# Entry
Amino acid sequence: MQEVQLENKTIEDYREIVGNEVIDDLIKNAAPLKNKKIIEINSTSAGGGVAEILKAKIPLLRNLGVDASWLVIPPDDDFFKVTKNIHNCLQGNCGQALKKTDTDYYIRYLNQISEKLPTDADLYVLHDPQTLGLINHLKGKKVIWRCHIDLTEADQKALEWIQSFYPRFNKIVFSLDEYVKGFEHKKTTIIHPAIDPLSTKNKFLRTYEAKKIITDLDVNTDKPYMLQVSRFDKFKDPIGVLKIFSMVRKFIPNLQCVLMGNYATDDPDGKIYYDLVMEKAQELKRHNIHIINKSDDLAVNALQTLADVVIQNSNKEGFGLTVTEALWKGRFVFSHPVGGIALQVLHDQTGFYLGYSDDANADKIVDVLKNKEYYSHIEQNAKEHVRKNFLITTMLGKFVNLYGEVLKL
Ligand code: UDP
# Structure
């Protein structure tokens, strides 16, 4: 098990963004957690929303005096194949039904790696199904499970399997109310994920800085572009984005489409899906289409900062941090109201819903692109909505209270 090395962060730096009250409360509420050892464990240190959150959460907990650390389980292809299938089944898209041989492999692998699990923490926080089974090795410890997945259409067998672990946890945290399914309500808590406004990905960039970065990515800053930043994954449907783009560009011929994506190291299907996206782009002659497959937070920031319109075409989403990031930068975001996106993109207030007619979607995007002034209040609303609800300081406040409650402080 590998500890992730992190840069320091200072809570005081957030005062001017979120105000004194939020920071003062946070400092006060975190005081009882001073020097408590808290270990959070997930399956990847890069790629995807969980890693993104931990990158900010752990250093800020440390700055608040908590002895917090982040461990990542060692990678194993077969284990990740099993957990990817579990993940898909839980999201309601079971490639193959969950088999006993798979769950047996899962348990065996976690047994094997648990030898490296430190046993001296006051509290453990296990993230997502990949680390869920580590609960077997934490007898007598305080343990929280943080589930980041949308369980609303979960396959029954997969759901029952994860639920079999629930009784041993002290608390289970979901991103949204509707993800809580069929067990004691008092054991569950809802905490929305959040973004770090001071991270490389979200810090303020001046237009000229952003332009320089975007030009280096070979995207033409003199032409408008629509953007989706997401893992190459069928639930994010980047191929659908290319379809919408091919319709919009009939009306805005110089429009570019930028798909920035990566695939997490725990996602064995990523490369396969990426190839399908490339195929579709080829079909469209790649004209004005930029597919960027690299891990680069500053590039994500620059692209989101100047995008004329941001699409998030997910048909399933845990929360959708990529949407939070775009809203925080005051972009026009178009997305389906799925999972956490429904809390973020409020139709005609902070962004726009995509419907299931490509024609209608394209018409609305053209309308917004041609009438940006008319819609400028949406950009302002989008930013304020994130400031109030989805910044890391709000999320941290809720975790600090939860940790205190579990540790009975
Ligand atoms: N992301 C990134 N580079 C990429 C694609 C995605 O940095 O090429 C980031 C994105 O900015 C966001 C996170 O990965 O911070 C994705 O989180 P989200 O909740 O949107 O989706 P998840 O991948 O967790 O399903």
About this structure: The first strand starts at residue 2 and ends at 3. The chain has 16 helices and 13 strands.
